[in-house]
Amino acid sequence: MHISEERITEVLTIGLKGRLDANTSKSVEEFLLKQIDAGERVFVLDLTHLEYISSVGLRVFMMAAKRLKVVQGKIVVCSLPGPIKEVFEISGFTSLFAMFDDRDAAVKGVK
After folding, report:
1. Which long-range contacts (CB under 8 A, 24 or more apart) does 21-30 make?
2. What is the DSSP letter of 92?
3. Is 88:81 a contact under the CB 8 Å cutoff?
4. Domain segments of the chain: what residues?
5. What is the DSSP string of 42-63?
6. For the chain, which terminal residue's Cβ has fewer other Cβ atoms within 10 angstroms, N or C?
7. Residue 43 class from Cβ within 10 Å (0-12 exposed, 13-18 middle, 19+ buried)?
8. What's the pLDDT at 13?
9. What pLDDT sits at residue 80?
10. Architecture of the domain whose range is 2-110
């Protein structure tokens, strides 16, 4: 799993590349929690290069969203490849996370 980050004004965009599963979820969880603990409050998760997500990976997103809700933060997702979007739909995550077609729309939509 490769994690990249880029700041666009007050929004922290995070790109995930690879597989988000039991083997990689801990590193993503630690990264997100570290950012939240450091004071980040507005996140865009760019999933363009995410190849696979398991239920453990979905749990990481849910945990981050819950943590951000407590501190009046927000997290959205964008650029979901077809199979990833299907997992979000089947699991009901489309009702939990605002979803955008691309990063620019997500950055505008999260503000």
Report:
1. 21/52, 21/53, 21/54, 21/56, 21/57, 22/54, 22/56, 24/57, 25/54, 25/56, 25/57, 25/59, 25/60, 27/1, 27/3, 28/1, 28/3, 28/57, 28/60, 29/60, 29/63, 29/64
2. T
3. no
4. 2-110
5. EEEEE-TTEEEE-HHHHHHHHH
6. C
7. buried
8. 97
9. 97
10. 2-Layer Sandwich (3.30)
Six-digit token string for 84: 């990833």
Mean pLDDT of the chain: 96
Q: What is the pLDDT of residue 100?
A: 97
pLDDT tens, position by position, 20-74 = 999 999 999 999 999 999 999 999 999 999 999 999 999 999 999 999 999 999 9
- In the DSSP assignment, the letter for residue 40 is -
